[in-house]
Amino acid sequence: MQSLVAAGFRSGHVALQNGMTDAELFEYVFGGDNTLLALSFVINIALAGITILGIAYLGRNLTDPRSKAIATVLMLISVVSISSYTGLASGLTLSVLEMPAGHPAAGATTAGENGVLTMWGRYLTWTFSTPFILIALGMIAGSNWTKILTSSAFTIAMCVTGLAAALTTSSLVLRWWWFVLGSIFFLVIVYVILVDWTAEAKRAGTGDLFRTLKFLTVVGWFGYPILWALGVEGFAILDVAVTSWGYSLLDIVTKYIVTFVAMSYVVEEPDTITGGTDYGASISGPTTPDD
């Protein structure tokens, strides 16, 4: 078992090695003719910052603990995004990887280096931000924490297998196997949202809001595997800049727009959202004795 783990770490280390330093990758993105690529990072940094400030402003008068909890979870989505996009913009979470034999981009070069630009930092964004999206959706639907945590675990597995697909350079078949595996995990999440949580939201009285949120989320999330397949990591029909902008636009919809739609409802603190003064407490509050 230890040898397998060690082999996995060695493979990951080799996959992320390239001849370009962070400074050179930063210069490639911002110093050349890659304005479109650079903007796909910078605009998301700005939107994530605006979203964080917007949630702080909208939630300034919240009083109910459950409303505050949902607002905090919504804010954390953008906290992760602004950090991750800064990593991409700095070159820290970019690499140039040689694609395996048979890949459409095999033999390609980037800034004189063999390989294509791989934005593996995006998978860090999704790994840490999508669980917060699901936690917010689950809380709004009135679901129990078992389903919320299970769906969050599946989304982490989905993002990690997506990262493996992007970093696997040994075999084209293995790249696509990772992709298929991640897609299976994705379908489990879709089932929970469209079936379980839709029914629970109707019972909780948040059906109308949840209908909007699930449409934006599920439709947007289906765009990610489609873009992966069409982009530089899959069939390489789309170039790096277009692929990056595709991901950025999907992030704008499934993160910032979803956040503001949900937050606009939460700030009103309707009965379907509030949890009461004892929400989250392990011991009920004091009761007033009868006279």
TrEMBL record:
Main location: membrane
Record keywords: Chromophore, Membrane, Photoreceptor protein, Receptor, Retinal protein, Sensory transduction, Transmembrane, Transmembrane helix
Cell compartment(s), UniProt: Membrane
Transmembrane segments annotated in the record for this chain: 36-58, 70-92, 123-141, 148-170, 176-194, 215-238
Membrane topology of the entry: Multi-pass membrane protein
GO MF annotation: an example: photoreceptor activity
InterPro entries for this protein: Arc/bac/fun_rhodopsins (IPR001425)
UniProt-listed GO biological process terms: phototransduction
Top-level taxon: Archaea
Entry GO CC: membrane
Family classification: Belongs to the archaeal/bacterial/fungal opsin family.
Full protein name: Bacteriorhodopsin
Species of origin: Natrinema halophilum
Lineage, opening ranks: Archaea, Methanobacteriati, Methanobacteriota, Stenosarchaea group, Halobacteria
